[in-house]
Amino acid sequence: MIALDSPRWSALEHAYGEAGDIPSLLRELDSFPTRINHQCEPWHTLWSSLCHQGDVFSASFAAVPHILRAAASAPDRIGMDYLLLPAAIEIARLAHGGEIPAGKDICDSYQSAWKQVPDLISRCLHRKWDDDFCRVATAALCIAMGHAEVGSAVLELDPDVLEDFFPWLENR
């Protein structure tokens, strides 16, 4: 993975241009910030920069291994964004045909990070999951196992959708 102090980050791009600002945001994840609302940092800037309206960028793929590494360091402390942002990046990549930049430090580390997701999720099993974390963890597991369409569908199953889903299921 690209070191957070590497000058290569400035050669990568995100939604607003060069990605030299991303490493400092990724470093903040090691303190396990809680996202209370959509404006909370560093999540707000990471989301808007790395998965902007369904578009992903070279910095998106370089960031995912760092996000998942932070999550793996203390899975009992992570919020859903540690799994949701990587999941959204992978879903967007597949939906729009985005290419992961070649090379060991981006492509290989991105793919390797996804292979670690099932273990990461299994390390969260001892903690209490709310509905959102359950949905996101399930979707991330589906994506990691090669079932991105199922993962994408699971992400849509919020309480409002479930309210309509079960009657639909009974009447089909």
What does this molecule look like?
It is a single chain. This protein is mostly helical and 172 residues long. 58% of the residues lie in helices and 5% in strands. It contains nine helices and four strands. The protein has helices at residues 22-28, 43-50, 58-73, 81-96, 104-115, 117-122, 131-144, 148-155, 159-171; strands at residues 13-14, 17-18, 51-52, 55-56. The strands form two sheets. The chain has a two-stranded antiparallel ribbon with strand order 1-2. The protein has a two-stranded antiparallel sheet with strand order 3-4. α3 (58-73) packs antiparallel against α4 (81-96), α3 (58-73) crosses α5 and α4 crosses α8. The chain is globular, with a radius of gyration of 16 Å. It starts with 12 loop residues before the first strand and ends with a helix.
Average pLDDT score:
94
Ends: how far apart?
47 Å
Q: What overall form do the CA principal axes indicate? A: globular
Assess the beta-strand content as a share of residues: under 5%
* Sheet with most strands: 2 strands, antiparallel
Q: Number of helical segments?
A: 9
**Secondary-structure element order, N to C:** EEHHEEHHHHHHH
Radius of gyration: 16 Å
The chain-level structural class is mainly alpha
Uncertain segments are none
Overall strand count: 4
The order of strands across the largest sheet is 1-2
Proportion in helices: 55-70%
